[in-house]
Design brief:
The chain has about 130 residues and is mainly alpha-helical. The chain contains three helices and four strands. The chain starts with 9 loop residues before the first helix and ends with a strand.
Length: about 130
């Protein structure tokens, strides 16, 4: 038995090629824009990885500096006490005096010769107000 094979016309061949390349394009588009691992998502993850790697390097450097400072403070009690006092700490039973600078007054003080109309500035512009804190 002989089959009747009919040759495809150029129009049908173009349709088949177009269908084939259209299907290939659809698969590529799905791979790039769809699916679990989208291309733009992979690019985002790559940039996020780079950012986190830089942040880890910065934190390791900071950690190294802090470890060095910790070792230095463990060996120097005077430095440790000075830093604690700068933070406002005190020893039990100790009285702390806080010095608050007084702002100079804008008004002038009249001179003893008030009849002359000459005014003078206050003598001490650097006076300090002290308050006792417990």
């Amino acid at each position: 038995m002989v089959e009747n094979r009919r040759f495809k016309t150029p129009r049908e061949l173009r349709r088949q090629k177009l269908a084939f390349w259209g299907a290939c394009g659809a698969l590529v588009a799905y791979a790039v824009l769809g699916g679990d691992y989208k291309l733009y998502h992979l690019v985002f993850l790559s940039s996020e990885k780079d950012r986190l790697t830089r942040q880890i390097d910065e934190l390791r450097a900071e950690n190294s500096v802090l470890a060095t400072e910790e070792r230095r403070l463990q060996g120097d009690s005077v430095l440790l006490e000075r830093m604690a006092r700068e933070k406002g700490m005190k020893k039990p039973g100790e009285i702390v005096y806080r010095l608050i600078p007084v702002q100079p007054q804008e008004a002038t003080v009249p001179d003893s010769g008030a009849e002359s109309g000459v005014e003078r500035q206050p003598e001490s512009m650097d006076s300090v107000d002290t308050r006792r804190i417990r």
